[in-house]
Amino acid sequence: MFNEPGLLHALLLLLVVSALYALRKRLPGSKLGRGGYQFESPHARRRRRQLIALECTELVLAGVFLLVGGAKLIGRHDMVELFRSIGVGQWLRYVTGVLEVVGAAFMIVPLASGASAVGLGTIMVSATLIELFVLRRPPIAAMACLSAHTYVAWSRLLHRTASEQPLTLVTIEATPTIEPALTIELTPTVEPMLTHSPNVESPAPDLLTSDGASTVSPNLHATPASGHHLDQASPALVSPSLERCAG
Q: CB within 8 A of 235, min separation 6: which ones?
């Protein structure tokens, strides 16, 4: 890392990150520069914001390691003095510079940023140990980069399925329900025919006896109203046995 980072380094980093942002939003799998859906669930909106924050972190890391790796490769004075203090040789500076530039290039690609974070994180672990036990100084910059690489690797590799799941809208199709038609069944009612009541007495026809005399049917007088009907009976109808008894 740079021994004394200043305003010039910050402006240079801002320019590099801006250029990487313009490149990143054209790559497949990136959420940068893309608006959300109109009808987006709260979970999908939160997930989209997390992906945007993750991609911004990846762009900052890519910009930092492009600058640091490039400084090692071009042989800046502070980088040469750093590896001379380590005591291994300048070949390690070139190897480290190549690995950092390649890792930064893969960090720009969304599908390869997880593997790049693992590789650059391994370099940062080595840098942390060197600063602690060789250079005898606190590894603040190395630990900050290691934490960012851990976040990217954890988000990309352990949650790849959730991060690559497309945001889809749930559509509900309304199925029309047909109500059954109201049917009215008409039941014909048949009026009973007028019949004679059995309680109504109908006049029976006169019966002719053998001697030609007509007799009245007994149904005509089913119930005598009073006893004076017997008094007005015809003498011809009196039994002959009663006449003999009277004689």
A: none
Predicted TM-score (pTM) above 0.85: no
Instruction: Give the separation between CA 206 and CA 161, rounded to whole angstroms.
Output: 114
- What are the extents of the domains in the chain? 13-29+42-163
Q: Which residue from 20, 50, 61, 55 is spatially nearest to 144, judged by alpha carbons?
A: 61
SS3 205: coil
Q: What confidence tens digit (pLDDT) does each residue in 103-130 have?
A: 999 999 999 999 999 999 999 999 999 9
Q: Give the DSSP letter of residue 19.
A: H
Residue 233: pLDDT over 50: no
User: Phi and psi for 207 in degrees, rounded to 5?
Assistant: -100, 135
CA 163/CA 86 separation, integer angstroms = 40
Alpha-carbon distance of 36 to 39, in angstroms, equals 9
Mean pLDDT to the nearest integer, 44-50: 85
Confidence of residue 83 (pLDDT cuts 50, 70, 90): very high
What is the per-residue DSSP string for 38-103? SS--HHHHHHHHHHHHHHHHHHHHHHHHHHHHHHHHHT-HHHHHHHHHHTS-THHHHHHHHHHHHH
Q: Which amino acid is at 154?
A: W
Q: What is the largest CA-CA distance in the chain?
A: 184
Find out whether 194 and 183 touch, Cβ atoms under 8 Å.
no
